[in-house]
Each structure stands twice: as C-alpha cells, then as structure tokens.
C-alpha cells in the first residue's frame, strides 16, 4: 500500500489545483506516491516531503554534487532535477545503499577507514557518486577516478582521502 | 523559480501544440541549464513541456551513407560512451567527456547541449545590464571583468562565448542538425546553427520559435585515427574552457590530406575557418604549419583587457593540439595537454 506524501509547508495553503501532480517513485526499494508542484526539485522532494535528509543541499545549482543520488542506477544532481519529471523512476539515496543486515556499504567502511571526511557534508553525495562511477566502469586509473569524481567538491580538505577510499573499494585499490 | 505548469509530450506534433497552448512556454529535456536559469530568475516560463517521452529521439544509429545519427534526447554520457561514438568519433567522445561533470552528463541531452545559454557572469547576474538577457540594456562585460569572454566575432552589443565542448567537436566533424517544427522539417549545418551576436545578441542560434531539434547527423569521416581535443581552463576539471581546440587529421605519411580545426571558448559559436584548413592540405603536419594555420584562424582577434591572453593561448593551443592529434593515444582524462 502506498502512502500519499505532501509537504508540511503546503498544508493549509491553497494550491493551484491544475498544477499539482501525483507521481510514483521507488525510493530505496519502497514505492512512494507524492503530490508535487512542478517546480519542486527531486532534492526538495526527498528532504522536505519524504524526510530523507541524508541527501544534502549544497549549492542547489549542480556545481557541488552534495545532492547526488542514483536515478535508475545513474548518478544525477537531484537539485537540478524536477521531481515531477522522474515519475516511475527508481531512486537510491545514501539511506538506501547499505545491505539490510546492519552492515555498512563497502564505500561507507572505506570512508571511515581512510578518514575521508571532516565536516561530512559532501560525503553522501561523494559515496552515491562513487557508486555510480563504478557502475559506469570507465574509471581505470587514479587519474580517471579524480576526473570522474570532479562533480563532487570537498571544501574541507579530505579530497585525497576520498580518492584513497574509492580506490580501495574499486578493484582492490589498484590501477588497472 | 516562478510557478509554472508542467505537461508531457509524446510526439513532436504534441509538443508543439502544447507549447503553443500556454503563454510563454519552454521545452525541457535534461533540464540542467533550464532549471538552473529558472532558479536564478534569468528565465521564467508559464509552462514547461517535457519532451523526454518522445520515443524516436532516444537512439544512436548508423545511416546508409556510412554516417551516424544521434538522437537529440540521448544524454551526453550515453553518447560519449556509445560504441559507435567511442570507436568512430572519438573526437566527439573526448569533447563531451571534457565538459560539465559526470552527473550533469548523465542528465543533459544532446539537443539541450546545443541550446545551452552562455555562462557570461553578467548574463547570470539579473542586476547587471546585459543585451542578451534584456535587449537594449547594455553590455557589462565589455568594460567589466571579461577574462572568459570572446576574442572573435564580437559586437558592440555582446562579447559572450558559447560554452559547449561537444559543439566544438561537432563543428570539426561537419555535423548536421535535424529540426522539426510548425513549418517544414529542415537541416542546418552545425557551423551555421549558432549565430554571432551582432545587433541581436538575445538570439543564440537560428532555431525558430516552436522548432525542436530531433537529431544530429555525423558524416562518415570521423578522423578516428588522428584526432585530439584540448581544453584549457582555470582548474583541471569541471570548468568551462578558456580556450579549447578540436582537431581531426587525415594523413598520408606526414602529409595532411584532410584536416578540421574548430576552436571553442573564443566566440559566440564554435570557430572554424575553412581557409586555414585549405592552407594545411598537402603540407606536412608540423608546428610551423599549424602555427601558420593558427594565424589564419585568429585573424582579427581582439581582446578586451582581461582576456587579451586568449589570443596567444589560442594560437599555442591550436599548434599543440595539432601535434597531439598525431598521437591520439596520449589523450588524458579531461582533455588536458598530453604532449
């Protein structure tokens, strides 16, 4: 059974009826129906409607990558995505990457081992982006990883450790 | 963002009809530029018509003449990583992969790449005069901080550059843009698709109101043996080009049989000068000859103080990329200098 989610901020407000859309999304394996106005970003839908606040809002303009999620397995900037355009899509956020048995995802473990964050704000986006990158299968060397992770900015100085963590998980850390 | 309506179109006819049924409407595909512009209130819309459901523009296929047709709604990433593009048009693949970020490339479509707006700081600053955003208001860039602006084909109205990497390669490859619309379907060569600013800088290209890009045709000649894309910018990745160069060579020994050179980051459109290519045909692929060709390409280049450096940078980039095209196996991630 699906639950209809609508934002707290919308309650008690008159909404232009014709503009409201009901969409169905599978979020971390669970099907959800939400009512959105067309200008609601996927990022805001996740955070404000579904209360999945793991996905971060950094620049809100696609420049920092903190909002990166996987949409049908591909990494995208949820801030530049209108939720209404993702009807029927399968979305994975940082909350959905660990196996159900209470273990962490290998990248989550590697980030802890490599001290790959200070403030941690970019971390969910970095990890979702790295999962997407490995799925793409185009990163063969450390230089490739650096280039193909350039859509995620770390501003507090952990970038080297982030690349180390990703390299360890990818092919056991070796350049191919 | 302003409060726009949203609808989905399943055919081109449907899309055009929906576009006309709302006041000020826009098509949306990948949305990476449109949503950004809406958020900054640089553009607004009464309605967005989502053209992603149009099925026939989502494929990449070989054509009977040996060329390849790329659907306008295929994403930049799926284009760059498609086997036909990787193998036969690696220059295009490299250029696409030098642009934006992996996340953006997973969203942005090929049609949208052609239609993206300039990243001129003043165009993006709603408080600054800008003839492109608000015709007649003036150009803030000419006497402003114009490091990223154009050196070729500028006008007294606008010195903005067209920021695409993909289109620089498409210009070099003689790509053709297929267009549908309320009138007859037609085709425009990529090199004639974008406009120079002149007195109408608010018009980026020659697409007419209501028209829609359906696909991009690449001729059979892909320069897959000797090619190079070089992108020079203020950081090594995820930044727009100060200068970029796409070079394709067809060689017989060390003699150039055919050549294409397109330059990005220097004008309101990808810059190609056929006279420079004519000069190079039949000559050896040497630094001297590429230098002479660069002088032809950059004839008339004018700086605006903060971007004077681009003239010399473009010359050196053209020479260097010519030499890099002799050794395409040295191409680096992010189209950095490799030789």
TrEMBL record, chain B:
Keyword terms: FAD, Flavoprotein
TM annotation in the entry: none
SMART domains according to UniProt: CO_deh_flav_C
Gene3D superfamilies documented for this protein: 3.30.465.10, CO dehydrogenase flavoprotein, C-terminal domain, Uridine Diphospho-n-acetylenolpyruvylglucosamine Reductase, domain 2
Taxonomic superkingdom: Bacteria
FAD-binding PCMH-type domain ranges (all copies): 1-223
MF annotations from Gene Ontology: FAD binding; oxidoreductase activity
Classification via Pfam families: CO_deh_flav_C (PF03450), FAD_binding_5 (PF00941)
The keyword Transferase is annotated on this UniProt entry: no
Name this protein carries in UniProt: Xanthine dehydrogenase family protein subunit M
Provenance organism: Xanthocytophaga flava
Taxonomic lineage: Bacteria, Pseudomonadati, Bacteroidota, Cytophagia, Cytophagales
């Amino acid at each position: 059974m699906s639950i209809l989610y609508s934002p707290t901020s919308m309650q008690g407000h008159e909404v232009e009826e014709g503009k409201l859309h009901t969409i169905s999304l599978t979020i971390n394996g669970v099907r959800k129906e939400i009512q959105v106005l067309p200008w609601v970003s996927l990022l805001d839908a996740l955070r404000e409607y579904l209360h999945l606040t793991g996905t971060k809002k950094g620049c809100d303009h696609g420049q920092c990558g903190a909002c990166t999620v996987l949409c049908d397995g591909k990494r995208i900037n949820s801030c530049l995505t209108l939720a209404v355009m993702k009807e029927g899509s399968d979305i994975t956020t940082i909350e959905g990457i660990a196996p159900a048995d209470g273990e962490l995802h290998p990248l989550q473990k590697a980030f802890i081992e490599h001290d790959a964050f200070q403030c941690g704000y970019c971390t969910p986006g970095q990890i979702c982006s790295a999962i997407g990158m490995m799925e793409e299968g185009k990163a063969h060397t450390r230089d490739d990883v650096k280039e193909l992770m350039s859509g995620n900015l770390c501003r507090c100085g952990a970038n080297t450790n982030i690349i180390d963590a990703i390299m360890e998980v990818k092919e056991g850390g070796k350049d191919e | 963002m302003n409060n726009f309506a949203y609808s989905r179109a399943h055919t081109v006819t449907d899309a055009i009809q929906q576009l006309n049924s709302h006041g000020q409407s826009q098509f949306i595909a990948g949305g990476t530029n449109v949503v950004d512009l809406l958020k900054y209130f640089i553009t607004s819309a009464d309605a967005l018509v989502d053209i992603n459901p149009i099925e026939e523009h989502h494929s990449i296929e070989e054509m009977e003449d040996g060329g390849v047709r790329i659907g306008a709604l295929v994403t930049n990433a799926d284009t760059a990583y498609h086997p036909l593009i990787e193998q036969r048009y690696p220059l295009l693949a490299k250029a696409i992969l030098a642009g934006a970020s992996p996340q953006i490339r997973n969203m942005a479509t090929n049609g949208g790449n052609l239609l993206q707006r300039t990243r001129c700081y003043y165009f993006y600053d709603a408080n600054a005069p800008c003839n492109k955003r608000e015709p007649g208001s003036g150009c803030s860039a000419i006497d402003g901080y114009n490091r990223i602006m154009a050196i070729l084909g500028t006008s007294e109205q606008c010195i903005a550059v067209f920021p695409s990497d993909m289109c620089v390669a498409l210009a070099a490859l003689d790509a053709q843009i297929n267009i549908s619309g309320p009138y007859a379907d037609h085709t425009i060569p990529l090199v004639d698709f974008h406009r120079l600013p002149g007195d109408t800088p608010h018009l980026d290209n020659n697409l007419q109101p209501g028209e829609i890009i359906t696909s991009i045709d690449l001729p059979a000649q892909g320069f897959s043996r000797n090619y190079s894309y070089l992108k020079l910018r203020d950081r090594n990745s995820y930044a727009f080009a100060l200068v970029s160069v796409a070079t394709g060579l067809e060689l017989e020994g060390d003699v150039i049989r055919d050549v294409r050179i397109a330059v990005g980051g220097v004008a309101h459109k990808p810059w190609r000068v056929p006279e420079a290519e004519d000069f190079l045909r039949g000559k050896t692929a040497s630094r001297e000859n590429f230098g002479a060709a660069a002088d032809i390409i950059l004839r008339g280049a004018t700086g605006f103080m903060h971007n004077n450096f681009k003239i010399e940078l473009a010359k050196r980039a053209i020479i260097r990329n010519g030499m890099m095209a002799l050794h395409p196996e040295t191409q680096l991630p992010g189209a950095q200098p490799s030789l």
